[in-house]
Every structure is written in C-alpha cells, then in structure tokens.
Amino acid sequence: MEFHEKAYIYEAIEVEKAGLEVYFKKTAEFIIPEELQNKFHELPAFKTAFEALMPGRQRAYIFYFSEPKQSKTRVSRVEKYMQQILSEKGLND
Fold it and tell me: What is the pLDDT of residue 13?
C-alpha cells in the first residue's frame, strides 16, 4: 500500500471517530425508452423482473436500450435481452 492510500485510510478513520457524515449526491433520474415502457405494459412480470434488478444493472440496460436512433433497433434490443432480465442478470453477465 502506498503512502497516499494509507493517508486516505487514516483520514477515513478520523472522520468516523469524529462522527461526521458523508452526503452523497442524489442519483439522477433516467428516462426509460418508450419501447421498454411498452414491453412493461405488455408483460407486467417483465417490469417486475426489471425493477428487481440492482440500480446499476437497470441503468446499464436503460443506457443500452436508449442508444439507437431508430425505434426498431431499440425494440430489437429490448426483445433480445428480455430473457436475461427475467433471469435477473445484468447486461454483461
């Protein structure tokens, strides 16, 4: 462990001892693509499975599904990854 890493650890210990709180930025809201919303309406179990994913996995899917400019490509991506989402897996699992 290098010197600067030890310094961070000691600083964290002092912050903890002092009882200070760390405030994190509120996570941004993400716009769910229309094609994904439509699939949620068609299959409520799919929406439930998506909401059960960890927030990071949800964001990864939303980013991936939102990338294409053409709707047909977004629909294709949603359909391609439906089973993976239903199996509670992330985009790259």
Answer: 86
